[in-house]
């Protein structure tokens, strides 16, 4: 890694302003006639309905901070000479620190010079567009939307029914950080609502609904080193648990019957690492169908004698996983305990704020109250989950902090909203650490924000639709893995077969198989029955799907030694398991725009089939290598597009000829 | 009418600013800490697709013009004391004149104090909301949209197919003028894109994408006088032609067959004033179906010997109407003439700008070129239409001026776009005047803008969907008549049965009948076969509809003496024929929110049935009168809601007991 001193930011005076650069790259360019910072006052309107937000700003004032006075590493900005400074920047430790002299300012716009052919990636976990250039990205944790495409019937219907259709930028995990193809990265340290606007040719505009603490810049000669720097900055995940390598995590929510079905899948040759039953807490009947009972402890009616069965499974080499989220339903026993102890966020009147989740209300455990966080970690996750024998869980939600609740730390909920996923991750991580199970118990989250990297050992891509759609189907999971991976989230995975089945949209066997084919080349294979299990085909209900799935779990298991080495790289260097092609081929600009194939570690290239009824696929192979097709052994020169046959069971996968793992990879052809 | 001197605006200094009032109503209230004017710089993005616009603004700067220096009737505004003025206001002749000292300013925001319970009406011809309070209205002439409701399937499909779904504020005829329930009116004299934002409790915010020439205020003790003032300001229509009173204008576009169908309708008892054949110019086949041939002269293949037939009709007391719009198709003979003469708007290279209207291109006749306007008025409308024997026409379009064409007068097309409908109206009016047929030849327009009142003798409500939908059906025509009527457009009418039939949405006989029932109580009854005549039921295809329609034409004809008196009021005083209830009942605030019933002149109240399958309707009857139900003679006291039976043929209609026309009205019961 390069010496950090080389990266020091340089502040230079110019005729009527200044420039700031890092590693020779100009990141601020200010003059009186073309200022780089605007400040103002806005009044936002924010409406939440079940995790979906309508947000609009009324900008009352936006002024150019045109006049700069520079004193050492301090820049005092005002609208004109003679005016008292409204904002002071300090260039320090690779960052620009902000200090508002005018307490009325609650909006800031910062322009960062852009090249015409520049690409930008990141923004947290983005589902639709890996390269964000040309578009505008609000960064606010929320439901990601259903369909996420204003031209799709599903999005339209979801909007009408629940305001839930979403758009390309909606994500459970936003983060105000981007990586530029100009070999620098930028991060805004704030939890306020912000917007990255990459639509302009000459500059990127960063909008923040607050004075941010600071804006950090990172630069390195290579993308790999840049990603390492970001991982150092945001936190590092532990290694994958050893037990994960044994096969797939099988998601079933069928009560006791789940055990029988698991066994029959094993009998069919499925390699299994764990059984995941989100319904371990029991069910609630609603008009929408069965929902989980949001009180985080075993329901022995639905799972009699579960503790014993978990132990038996474990003896058999299989772990048991559950489910938890940061709410407690009013009709569960834990609610009363939390309310008595004052652990819930409150409304203006000081009483427990209730959130409607669709025919049942919940309290929001206030994680800014250390006692509440500790109680959730110790009494719920510690005692009722880990001590009970769970080896992991879906740590669901985190995006729904209502913006009008009152919190123990006294900070405006609008400023805590984005931070909530990170606090939620921390509660989970602390519980795991308290049992010394870090790197052993595995929880997975869909929500995130800056810093979630430090606490969350595994992302899952959220709730895709059960289809091949461009903005909410299988392909979006690749974009999610690549964008989050660049920002220090080494491990990503998804629900095999997708989750959301609405308005008659149901899984096809083909979708299930294509999804499993991709998942075999990700850190974790995990199946999900989806939101409407009975209306959608399940892996164990179709012999072709089952046998295909079994083979994919064998492929996953076969690659475990390689995956383990990738986990080692993640721990040591912060490199993600799934990587954009440009990460290792930065001289090949052809790779910069690719978001539907990825490097699985340094040696393997995976190009999933993400559309229906494809007999083959065109894949770009990076320059400077010879690439071996995993299923035929045929070799191709890099630097070209190849059209490759891709029948079911043979997703386009290539590895580097001559790589250290060539022998292992060539073994795929016997599976 | 009150003395205009009473209305003089008053400018008064305050501690750190000023107030401006009219008739005691404060219309500007400025202080350093709460300025009423903001100025700035924006960069707009405007995309047009077939008359539908996507418009977005990037506000680079918006500053408070907080510092005011007052000198006589001049107010010099700047951001702070000591700064050179950026904007100078002059209070003069009931208006605020604007002069920008800073040429960079291209955005202005003006706050006008609002009462909590204030209503505002106007904005041109609004289809969805008569009272605009609580909503935001961009004012830009465009297609009005199909469905105009983001929750409707038709709007969704129209958006996906053609970006054509529209929203509540889209209108062919915007106008930056409103009438306040506080008994004043405001008008912004500008043709720039503007926005009226009535969403805030304490003030209305007016946004203009230019420095307007001036903002005019009007005040009067009564709404009636206020409307008279506005009609004086914007122009006055001539009386309705005498021939109109003879019955309905029958719209048929069936070539020669139209004459046969007209006769059979007359045989069935339909009272007819005119036959309207928009296809008199011939047809063009496209993949969307038959379209008119946009070259404005008779097509004798489709209408053999038309001149003789028009004369025969006229001998029979029936007029003939045609169709024209401001474009010329490239494959018609008029195009060549216009192009040779340099009458078309051009592109940047100076060649004729072509506009795609769906499988055929057209030139845009440049009405800012006096020679082109004169040619269109004289050679086309004069010679080929009026001299040929036409007594009127639909003067279609006017909303499509592309924002990137070059015009003869050198003004930016973005500034001429809104003015185009008025220029188009003027061309038509001049042609009519040149043959001394003002008040005799009748053309009708859907597009409009400030000043269209002066030239256009009759509005038509544009292209409703053939249904009862809230935002694009029958009911929207009432809102259109009331809003435009307040601003000096005395005559309004609509396509009986609606126009737009898409995505399987077709007319029902019930819709046709309910529409005809309403139209009998408007200035002009006119039928339209719609955009897809063969897929939609026509008046002459259903015996019940035909007989119902015939009766409605008799009702219309019966009321002609009354209508004629209303036309007299329009000519003399500028009062609209269709009036909101509050116009004559301003002390009854219950009437302020009503937009689905109207006064038909001072003596009659009409409450059309605008939903399907209604056996009755609840109608509010204003205070201080006794109201006679037109069909039963039953009398009701005002100040209450009554539920009234409304079978087909008996739309809820009431008249004032004891009014001058009582005998005439009571005659309705015999029809």
Automatic annotation (TrEMBL), chains A, B:
Recorded superkingdom: Bacteria
Organism: Rhizobium lentis
Gene Ontology terms describing biological process: carbohydrate metabolic process
Protein's UniProt keywords contain Hydrolase: yes
Pfam families given in the database record: Glyco_hydro_31_2nd, Glyco_hydro_31_3rd
Protein name: Alpha-glucosidase
UniProt domain Glycosyl hydrolase family 31 C-terminal: residue ranges: 574-658
UniProt-listed SUPFAM superfamilies: (Trans)glycosidases, Galactose mutarotase-like, Glycosyl hydrolase domain
EC number of the protein: 3.2.1.20
Keyword annotations of the record: Glycosidase, Hydrolase
GO molecular function, one term: carbohydrate binding
Span of domain Glycoside hydrolase family 31 TIM barrel: 260-565
